[in-house]
Amino acid sequence: MPANDYNPDIARRDLKYYIFDWDDNILHMPTYIHLDRRLADGTWVPHLVSTALFSVIRKDTVNYRPPNGNWDAAFVEFRDIEGSESKFLLDAKNAIDRLLAGQDREPPSFNTFRKTLREGRLFAIVTARGHNPQSLRKGVEMFIERILTPEEKKEMIRNLRGYVICFDEPGLNERLSDGEILKNYLDQNRYHAVTNPKFIRQVKENSNFDPENSESRKQFAILDFLEHLFRMVERMGSNRPVSVGFSDDDPGNVAAVADFIRTTLRKRFPGVKFVVYDTSDPDVDKGHKLVVSGQLGLFS
């Protein structure tokens, strides 16, 4: 695409950003948690559990347990194994194959994520997985390559060039190829797998968050993205209203994030509109919507 082909309306665009959980939110991933299940006679048998089911039964310690009490063994499919192809990328490919073949339906945040990419808006992936950030980023690149149509890819690059022209150094747009424009965009987003050992070490260095608690680790990831985001907004020199959307299919995470917004984020980022989507019900398009902000409080 020629460097002079860009969206001139970017400078007037609203400041809207997103934080996405991945599993059963952007894609239905064929990744399983390995558990033992208690039968009626008291014996235990191996049992594979989807992420959607795990969000429902994860606190049921009477009927479900990790094999040999080892949670690392339970989540072996949610880690990158050195020297092996990323299980995340293999499962993302499988999920996209099924979607394109009409064998699976679009998850609640699929089209919102697609639109986010098409419009070139900043985003964060915040998932309970333990993969390396680079694996998550490559999954996003795969989504762009396989899901976006040629016309949508052109629209995305056109929007991204508009951002570069409006907010970056003069002449940078002319020096960058389309591939470099896309890389620059992906570099600015966040990819947080909150059970990754390196990420957990980061949480341990901050006494305000509990590294042993999944919801607390997600809160840390969200705050990291928001601090990064507002450094960029300040650099843009814009005083327009900002809104940030968060979506997750685990009701526990949704409740923890909504509480984190009410108690912490709306004080730290006054005036920001926070929108939370509970996507645990696959029959509700885009999920149940909650709006949390300093002015509006919390309502359905």
Give the SSE map:
Elements: E1 15-20, E2 32-38, E3 44-50, H1 51-57, E4 64-65, H2 71-74, H3 87-100, H4 110-119, E5 123-127, H5 133-147, H6 150-167, H7 172-175, H8 178-187, E6 190-193, H9 197-204, H10 214-236, E7 242-248, H11 251-268, E8 273-278, E9 288-293, E10 297-299
Parallel strand pairs: 1-5, 1-7, 5-6, 7-8
Antiparallel strand pairs: 2-3, 2-4, 8-9, 9-10
Helix pairs in contact: 3-5, 6-8, 10-11
Largest sheet: 7 strands, mixed
Task: Enumerate the spans where pLDDT stays under 50 for 5 or more consecutive residues.
Answer: 294-300
Question: What is the approximate shape?
Answer: globular
The SSE string, one letter per element, is: EEEHEHHHEHHHHEHHEHEEE
Straight-line distance between termini: 43 Å
Mean pLDDT: 88
Tell me the Rg in angstroms.
20 Å
The proportion of strand residues reads: 15-25%
What is the helix content? 40-55%
Largest beta sheet: strand ordering: 6-5-1-7-8-9-10
Structural class: alpha/beta
Count of DSSP H/I helices: 11
Q: Could you give the count of β-strands?
A: 10
